[in-house]
Structures are given as C-alpha cells and as structure tokens.
Amino acid sequence: MYNTLGLIGNAAIIIGFVASVVGMITYFRSVGNPRIIGVARTGFHASVIAVFIASALLMILIVKHQFQFHYIWAYSSRELPLGLLMSTFYAGQEGSFLLWTLMVAVVGIVLLIYTQRHDNEREVMGVYTGILAFLLLLLIVKNPFTLIEGGALPEDGRGLNPLLQNFWMQIHPPILFLGFAAMAPPFALALGALMRKKYQAWVVSSLPWVVGGSALLGLGIALGGFWAYETLGWGGWWGWDPVENASLIPWLVSVALIHTMVTQKRTRGLNLTNFLLAILAFVLVLYSTFLTRSGVLGDASVHSFVDPGRFSFTLLVLFMFAFTDVGLALLFGRFTKWGKALFERFQGWKLYSVLYLIVIGPSIPIFAQVSGDLVPVFTEMINAANPIMLLVYYPMLWIAHLLNIASYLWLPALIIKIGLIGYTFTGRLHSTKEYDSFALMSRETWLGLGSAVIGVLTFIVLVGTSMPIIPQFMVDGFNSVLGLINDITGGSYSLGNTVDPSFYDAMGLPLAILMSIMTGITLLLMWVSTKPHAFLQKIWLPLALTVVFTLLSIFWGGVHDLGMILLAFSAFFSLFSNAVIGYRILRGNPKFSGAYIAHIGIAMMLLGIIGSGFYSESNSIELRQGDPVEWKGYRFTYTGFETFWNGERYYFKVQLDDAATGDQLDEVKTIMFVSDWGGQEQVNRNPGIATFLTRDVYIEPQALFEADPEGGKRFAFIKGQTYEYGGYRVTFEDFAMNNTQSSESFNIGGIFRVDKYGASSQELSSSRTTGPDGVQSIPGVVADGDLQIEVLGMQPNQDNLEMSQIEVRMKNPNIAVDKNDLRETLVVQASLKPFISFVWAGIIIMLIGFVVARSRRLKDARKLEAYEIDPEVRKAAMSGDPDQGEETPESETRVLDAE
Amino acid sequence: MKKRYLVGGVIVVVFLVIGGLSFLNSSVEYATLSKAEKSGKKVQVTGKWVQDMSTHYDTQNNTFTFYMKDEDDRVAQVVLEGAKPNNFDIATSVVAKGRYEEGAFYASEVLTKCPSKYEGNPEGQHPDEIKKSSL
Fold it and tell me: Strand B56-58 vs strand B93-101: parallel, antiparallel, or unpaired?
C-alpha cells in the first residue's frame, strides 16, 4: 500500500511537471489570446497541487518508516523523535529540492493573487510557472520516491547524521528555502515588466516582494549562523565558509536592489540596474544551490559534500544559463538600439531563432565547457529512463556534446557573450535624464552610491567563493601572466585555488566602515538637494554622540586597533543618525520607520562583531571532576555527566561561578557522545553557553580522559617528534633496543632529548623489558627530578620503520598520585565572546525593520496598482517642498495622492 | 552632474584594486606535502587520514595531532589547532589548510569530506549488506 503511495508521489511530480509546462506556455500564449488564460491557471494550480501531494506523501512515508524508499532509508531511522524525523524530509538532496519546490509553490499562490490585482498575471505567472517547471524537472531527475532495488524492506534506516540532530535542523532549512523561493517573484515581476514594456510601475509593485524576500532570506541565513554558534560549535556564527557565502550573495544583491528600487521610485533612474539586480538575485540563488549541492566545493567547505552525480548539477547550470539568457535577451531587446530594432524586425519563431543564435547560442559551448565531459550525463539519463526528460533535455545536450568535441569554441563564444552583455549594459533607451539632475549631496545620489558599495562587497564575496570552481588551466594561465609581471616588478603574487577567510575580513572591514558612514549620511540628506547649513544642523547631534561613544569604547572598552576604532566610529555614527531621525519618524508615523530600524540593527550587529569577533579570548582548560579552575574572573567546575537519548548521549555539566564572590552564575551542559552513524564511530560535540548581557562564556567540550591511576600523561612519539609537558620540551630521538632480544624477553628503549626552555638540554634514555620475570621498566628522569619518562610500549609500522611509534608516560614523580582517585578529566575550550548579544539583537532589529518597511511598501503598491507613474505629476509633487528631507507622512501621502 | 559617477567610480575602482591585490595575497593553492614543504606558504593539502597511526590530543596547547597521506602517498604528521574535527572518523578524505614547518604540517583548519550533511553514500552500504552483517 505504501509502495502505491510512492507511485502516486512519482506520478504527481511528473504530472506537475507537465502541468507547469502547459501552464507556462498557455500563460504566454494568453497574452494574444485571453480566452485560454483559464487553461493557464489550471496548469499552474495543477502543478501546485501536485507539489503539495508529493510533499505530503513523502512526509507520510517518512513518518511511517517506509525504508523501502531509498531516500527514507538513507536519511531517517526509527530512533528519531517526531520533530527530527520530519526534518529528514530535507536532509538529503532530493528532499531539499522538493522542499524548495514546495516553498516556490506556496509563494506562487500568493503571487498569483497579487498579480491578478496588478493586471500582469500573464507574463509574471508565465515566468513563475516556468521556474516551477524547472524545479519539477529537477525532481524528476532527483526523485525521493525511488525504491531500493528488489523492494526489500530494511529493518531500519541509516538515520540522520548526528551532527544535524538538533533543534535548529527543524527550523533553519525551511526558512532558508522559503527565502530562496522568495527571490523568484522579483525575477518574474522584472521579466513580466520587460515583456509588458512597463519600466516604472513594476518597481513599486515589486518592492514589497524584494523587501519581504530579503527579510526571509536574511532570517534563514541568520538562523544558520545561530545554529553554527549555538549548537554546532564552530566557534563563531560566521566563518566565510563558501556555503554561508553562497546564500549571502543573493541576499546582498536583494538588499542592494531595495536601495536602487527606492531610488528609481523617486527618480525614475537606474531602470536597467533594477532589472539586472532582480534577475541576478534569482540566478544567484540557483548558483548558490549549484555551489552547495553539486560537490564542487568539497575541498573548500566545512559543509562537506560528496559529488551527487553530474546530472542534477548539469541541469542546474543549464537552467542558470537559461534564466540568465532570457533576462539578457529581454534587456537587450528593450534597452539597446540594435536589440530594439531586432525585436521590431522579427516576430514569433523568427525572433526566437535570432535570439537563440546571438544570445542563447553562445552559451552552449560555454555551458559544455563548464559542465565538462558530458558522457556520464548521458549514461545517467538513460539509467533514469525518463522519456519526458530525454525529450526536453536531449537536443540541447547533444548539441553541447558535439560542440564539446570542438572544444576550442567556448572562447569565442565567451567573447561574444561578454560583448553582448557589455553592449546591453550601455543600453540607455528607457533611462531618464531626470536622475542625473540631482545634486551630489542628495539622498538619491547617496542611495545609488551605497548600492554600489554593496555591489562591490557582493562582487568580492562572489569571486572569492567561486575561486575553487575556476578551472586549473585558467589559474595556471593567469599565473604565467602574473609571473611576467612579478619578474618586472619584483613582486611575488600568485593566484591559488581557494581564498583564505582572512581575505573577506580584510575586505569587509573598509567596506563596512564606508557603508555605515553612508547609511548615516544618506538619511541626513534630503531628496533632490541638501543645503549645507541644514545638513550641519542635523549632523551635529549624531556626530557628537558618536565621538563620545567612540572615545568610551577606546578608553573604557579597550578597543585599540585602528581598524576597529574606525569601524566602531562608523557603526556608532550609523546607529545615532538613524536613531535620531528614526525617532522623529517613529513619533510621526511609525510605518515609515522601516529603513531606520533596519540600519540601527545593522549598526548594532557591527558593534557586536567588533566585540565578539575581534576581542574574543579563548583558552584550553583541563577540568578534573570537582576541582575548580579559574580563568578571566570565572571559576569553572566539571560536576559530572547526565545521559539522554536512551542513555546513549552525554551532557557534561560545567558549573560556572564568579571567582570573586563565589556565586554560582550558571551551569552549562556541554554535549559529547560517540555515534556510529554510517557504520563508523565518530565523536560529536556541542558547546554549552552561559549567556550574560555583555558577553557569552562559550564552553566547547574537547575530550574526556578517564582517571589514570598512575598519574601523568600518555604520549605517542615518532622519531623527531616533540611534545611539551610539565614545562619541558621533549623530543624523541631514536629507538634504543638492547641486544638481549630473545624469545623469552622483549625490550623497547628510546632516547629522548629534553630541554627546559632556554636552559641546556639533556638526553634521557628509558626502556622497558618484558621477560619471563615480568615487566621491568627503567624510566628516565631529568637532573632536577621533576620529569620522568616511562616507556609503555611501541607501535611498529611495517611499511615505514621511520613511522613506528613509541608510547610513553610522562609525569612529575614529585607529585603524589592517589591511586584510588578515579575522577575523570574533562578538557574544554572556553571562550569569552564580548557583546555577542548585540549581534543577535542587531539581526532581530534589522529584520523588524524589514517587516515594517515591507508593510509600507505593500501599501504603496496597493495605491499604485497597475499605475505607470506620470513624470510630470511626480516632479511637481517633489519640487513642491525640496527641503523636505525626511520621508514624513505628509510629504509621502501628498506624493502618492498626487499620483 | 557627472560628479556622482566620478565618486561612485572612484569608490568602486579603489576597492576592486585593493580587493584584487589582497585576493592574490590570501589565495591558497592546492598542494601536495612535498610542494608545501618546498614553498613554506599557506596551502591546502588533500589526503587521507592514516588510521593505523596514533592520534594525540594535546590538552595544554589544544592541538590535535594525526598522520595524513597525501595524493603522492607521502605521510606526514599534521598538527591541528583545536580538537579532533567533527565527522573526522567517517571522513573519506581530509583537507588540511596550513603550512609545512619543522617536519610537520601545522594546520589552522581541517575539513572533512564525507557522506554527510546533504549526501549519503548509498554505494558504501546497501541495506542488504547491513542486514547481512547484523544477522
């Protein structure tokens, strides 16, 4: 019966795909033939329902432990509690694609209602249904309803990776995918506007979607960061890991897009930029998925991946190209002289053929080059034996494959492509001169500049993150050019394969400083132009507060590094200028306060980053059970463990006291346990955190040592290896076996060089003989008598004798050892994270700002439904009171009413 | 009026130049242990953890020591700043980032590549095999 449900799920995906393709085509056809719009809507609805059915069925099968399905067997098991069991829905690739599709379907329902009100349903929903079709095609290839061959029902599944078995697994991925899905409507709205040749109103109707999408994606990213910090114990909440960067990139683009859209709404400028950014935000989501799911970053990321097979990867790249090319073709046709001529000259299939030749055509050899040898793809396709997929995909791949043989083709194709992109970007057909008429010191100008700075940051993260997938031959080629430059200039630059995270810190710092200063200044400026005295009148209060607080953080907070002082200054400046003006707005009409709230949040987050990221201290502490250890004014005591998860997992409890007063502050539960997921044992650790207002004490368990009745510590050396112990540096020089080896006795000896830092070194020898009379051990003792080295045994290495190890115990013989004391020792890495709470509070405030801004933009959109803004009315409305700097309710309503 | 573009252009160009240079400085090459030893630069070495050679966790310095074999089958001691990484034991291969100094590879970071987060390794273990082994 459950196998039947699987079949239905399978069928739902295929039917959904067919319905979405029909829906897409009829939506576009309905532009000239309004009668078929019913068919189009039915197609869309059918595909959405199919996605719901497939998702519900997968969930049922997971909850009912139907391990005959490969996906369910691979990621879930009986021992999981219901919440985590349900989260295995998206623990693997197939399920996470289904989740993504589900989110796109849910968002699509809202978008459908929205577009019906805005009278752009046909074009927008046509594009959107196309996106749904693409995702469903991906699901046909990566199908979660595949049965294990033979159909036998395994007793239990392999289970979820224990690393993921925690609370945030149930929250972070759905929100992140919802954020990914929320990047699709702006793309569809942009393409719809291009098709309808409406270049202004779409900005107003898209803004709530862009702001809402940024909020959701931002929340998803932040939850990931919180998960990494709170549970996974990566030490921090952001590590510039490629996978983190991959979702940050579309978010940055969407944030820049908010600012350029607001600029366009005011000035009618930046048309091309807004289309471009809306297209990019979505395509970069695809790129992000490609980076994180294809295994290409396997060598570069802590989110480890195994190559999932080339097919879905190829498909993702193909659609990335396709969606970009459709957008590019439209921009080319609308914004450039030649493109426009082309669109007027040709119609219907002729137009498509021409576009195929000049826009999409050149992508094919590039695509073939990027996806490499395509032969395995064919094999996989035939194995999958999905005829529909073959039909859709085969011709394109076949051409690509043919062209791949003539593999030199990609280079001219790339040149044509870059040329076309360059030419399109110079297109000025629908740009208005109006934007150019604003003064340098006007809010419009600074919004544009601010977006450019976000753009630079995006570009830097994008290039750095993409580094590992740049083919080696290109890296080599670039390096040979660099070599020539180095010869001339005497430099030593070279290009590697990945980027060190320090690169992002180094680049992010000046950009963050600049951005904070700009968010502060921009909102002090007025629309159109700003009189210097008015500006000075506004800036003095925030500036004075900023100077005071910066001085406080230097002299009282101990911020001494120049970069950090500047960052603190700029963050305080942004904080106070937004707060001062935001406060006035908030008192007037709170719905206009979104931007100020969001900026305050970002400023607070930056302050939190200064504290927690750059002034964090950490130390490795050994905690013998019951023996307190003091560090940084805290007293740490390991008090024992508790079990959970059927007694298989352990909480190791560390009590935290104030060292001065002796008051107990907290008791944190660190987690450490051994799991055998995938048939192999591994250690899992989760930190424990004591949270205070101005800092976190972050305790990561590292290891547990059982009591050793002999005292001291065990070490394993290979020749030449050095360890430090008890204030000595000990190097193992060589084995020294004596010549009395016989069948009865076996001797192991070693020579060690011991030096106390700076003092003269000495040589010790130590040996152990196992004979008929038992074990005889002769330890080596240093001259001062406070270090003893005792041989315990050896581990010979047959392949390489140099790698054989000697095992010894080092201890201070003067310290008495109580052989009955069997208390274990917990080793922890303790860190102080000052002001980490500012990071979380800042992110929450920023998201609140997004929500407020979204509701305001939604109201704007309602007022401007399907309205192409009249430039004359707008100009009159704005020139009425050029001094009106802030978006006070009065001015805003007047503008909107006038329209 | 063109001032705006000038200011914007200057900001963008300055940052791209700084970014480019800092990018070249902080880019990390893939290398083998021998190449790492020769260059002395920060590099990234991919290899396998040699499971039958001992590992050691130094509690005082918080370093984890293990042996890895690179693609040329050369074995070297790796000293990682920090404890044994999560997923280390099930890793099919490891990637160590760091420098080769004084006879050992000092890693600031070790990435583990394994059947994990989003990917299972179905080929490794067919359900039938599990059943067999559990019987």
Answer: unpaired
Alpha helices in A406-531 (DSSP H): 410-425, 443-466, 472-489, 502-524
- Count how many domains chain B has: 1
**Which two structure tokens, joined as six digits, stand for A779?**
């330890």
Q: pLDDT for A285-325, tens place per residue? A: 998 888 877 666 655 555 544 445 556 677 777 788 889 98
Q: Is residue B39 part of a domain?
A: yes
Please report whether residue B78 resides in a domain.
yes
How far is the first Cα of chain B from the last one, in angstroms, to the nearest whole number? 81
Q: So what's the ipTM on this one?
A: 0.72
Residue A407 carries which DSSP code? G
Q: How far is B68 from chain A (nearest CA, A)?
A: 12
Contact A699, A670 (CB under 8 A): yes
pLDDT of A597 higher than 80: yes
Percent of chain B residues topping a pLDDT of 90 = 0
Residues 6+ apart with CB under 8 A from A277: A253, A254, A256, A257, A260
Q: Is A636 on the interface with B (CB under 8 A)?
A: no
What stretch of H or E contains A427? Answer: none
Chain A residues touching residue B135 (CB < 8 angstroms): none
Return d(Cα B70, Cα A517) in angstroms, integer: 48
B57 is in which domain, residue-wise? 28-118
Contact indicator for A714, A809 with CB cutoff of 8 Å? yes
Best of A172, A304, A472 to substitute, by most chain B Cβ atoms within 10 angstroms, is A304
Domain residue ranges of chain A, discontinuous segments joined by +: 1-160, 309-437, 500-614+835-898, 713-821
Q: pLDDT, tens digit, for every residue of A384-399?
A: 444 444 454 456 556 6
Beta strands at A761-771 and A713-717: parallel, antiparallel or unpaired: unpaired
Q: What is the CATH number of the domain that holds B61?
A: 2.40.50.140
Using the Cβ of B92 and the Cβ atoms of chain A, whether some distance falls under 8 Å is answered with yes
> What average pLDDT does chain A have?
83
Q: Give one word for A114, left, alpha or beta, with left for phi > 0 and alpha for psi -120 to 50.
A: alpha
DSSP string, A741-800: --SS-EEEEEEEEEEETTSPEEEEEEEEEEETTEEEEE-EE-TTS--EEEEEEEE--SS-
